[in-house]
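Our working data are protein records whose layout never changes between entries. An example says more than a description, so a record of this kind follows.
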Amino acid sequence: MKKMIFGALAALSLLTLPATAQEECDLDVDFSVHVGYQGSFLKDFTAYPGATRSLHSGVRVGVDADFEVYEYEGFEFGIRPGVFFSQKGERYKDNADKALSYDLNYLDIPVTLRVSREVADDLDLIANVGPYLGIGLYGKNIAGSTSSEKHDSFGEDGELRRIDSGLIGSIGLKYDDLLLTVGGQYGFVDQLKDTKRLTGSPKNANFFVMVGYEF
């Protein structure tokens, strides 16, 4: 009789173990899509001496996932990896009012620490900070209106490195499933690989404003 009781208890324990393990390992994961404006420039770089520099305007669009890992006294902490198409660069105008530019297209992969807190009903304040990796997809250096005056900035005859990395930070609001985010990036990698024609230590710097939706 005792053996039957112990056997029943053992079987019951085996049946409840998967459910218990699932509860302990259950992760709260949310996915979001974002799209918005990005303004950027190449810090510590003057490709065209004497020309007037101006902000490069582009788009930033991508997806990310939010893994909630801890909660303490109303604050939620999580890890937020993502993938974004990111347009960066810089624009110039010379004395003849000729348009010159670096139009750089990157794949940005940020992994940030997320801290959030509910400040009103269905309204959360969110902050993110962490490193990012940038991979140059294609970049045009445009020095005129003809095709001979354009080349791939990341190509064999280009002057910029294809890999970038640095720090990204943002702050935003989440109302229900809608997101509004304002942030910026600063690259740590000197992007200039061709020092024969150009001088300086250009680093990507940008700010962005995005709207998003969380699933």
Observations:
- The first strand starts at residue 28 and ends at 45.
- The chain has one domain: 27-214.
